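Final paragraph of the annual report: two paired records, presented back to back.
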Amino acid sequence: MLCLLWSVLPFYAAQVDTLMVKSPSMNKEVQVVVVVPDIALGKKSVDCPVIYLLHGFGGNAKTWIGIRPELPQIADEKGIIFVCPDGKNSWYWDSPINPSYRYETYVSKELINYIDSQYRTYNNRKGRAITGFSMGGHGALWLAFRHPDTYGACGSISGGVDIRPFPENWEMKQLLGPYSENPQRWNEYTVINQSPYNSKSGPLAIIIDCGYYDFFYTVNQKLHEKLRYYNIPHDFLTRPGGHTHEYWNNAIDYQLLFFYKYFHPN
């Protein structure tokens, strides 16, 4: 069963849909906010690329549109659909110990299938990007690195790209088990130990951003160095700033430009 509530923000032609989209793997409905540009609506609509925006720990489906209220205007200007799912505090994993948390399956398969069936999307990796902040930055890279045939581009803002220095934080041990008892599992479930292998369709376009004063800065720097060591192309941005909404509000503009150029290479 799908419940649909939609509204049109004033001054913009873009449509903002608030959906409840069923997850068969978790047997529940998940709230999702979808921002649809005017060119993807109506009888003369055209296919548009999609950017999936993942929130951080403690957030929900409406977090991104709260951080960046201009998303409807940006959607119209760039011709991009934005999809913002409620990832709970899942770190966007399929938890190996809690079967009610299967957010990797949900975001990278179930939700994408739904969005592609209901909206005018390109319906391939070349028209699909994913990014997020904090826990969502980890989630975006985790999903893209593991599903490079699903996403063509990915990003992270202030991302928790190595979870191992923070074994007592943000409910991760409820999803993975305590680090002291499961170090190998924590090694396997952290982004920095994933390799963004080229898919059959081509390499990932990667952008990583973290402020100097962020408590995740060191792990982001180490991820950047690892990608450089393995000669994996990526953009790495850093400037003064901490783990704040103000930083994310600014940083998302750089990522959107990066993704727009990916979608329109010529």
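The closing record of the year follows.
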Amino acid sequence: NCHIVTYTDVLIKVSVVIPVYNDPSGLQDTLESLVAQNFPKDQYEIIVVDNGSTDKTLDVAKMHADKYPQLVKYVIEDKIQSSYAARNKGIGVAKGQVLAFTDSDCIPSKDWLFQGLKSLRENNVSMVAGRIEFTFKNSQPNIWEYFDAAGKLNQKSYVENAGFGATANLFLRKLMFEKYGVFLDELKSGGDYEFGRRLTKLGERLIYSQKTLVKHPA
């Protein structure tokens, strides 16, 4: 009686939104992992939102948009210096029924989109926060990496104890923004906390997904 999930079960068009500021190599790595997703290419789009970078970041976005014109697009948010303002700009142009958020230094696993959408759909929830796994330059973390990894981005704890998911790995139905508004763009940090709690306090369901993985350098 086991139900085998096929790709057609989870084919909801999804928009991936990546805010970025002065991080060309991080963005390069993130985009490479996103164009290589084992997910139908006509079922998702990747939106890079440059937050007024002053280096080669925009060149990386343009290069990928030229190479994958059906898949990658970029927009610019240069009025407000905030990753949440950048995410809001991405939400504004997104065509997907689901929005998936990650950051320009994260490496989503190959089945990230598949797992995130599957979790959202099978559990019939409003939001899914996926696992964030730290990576280290060497096999053992140095002291700074250790404190970074120990103290931050414990996504399971955020979901279960605080009622939000970090935007380094977050899936939600676009309807949520239409219903409750977008991120508070004046916030420099904590906008994901405010937004997630705004929704969970009003009864929207958020779950943690172990299989929906991104790797994040400490």
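Confidence is low (pLDDT under 50) at residues 1-11. This concludes the annual technical report; the extension proposal builds directly on these records.
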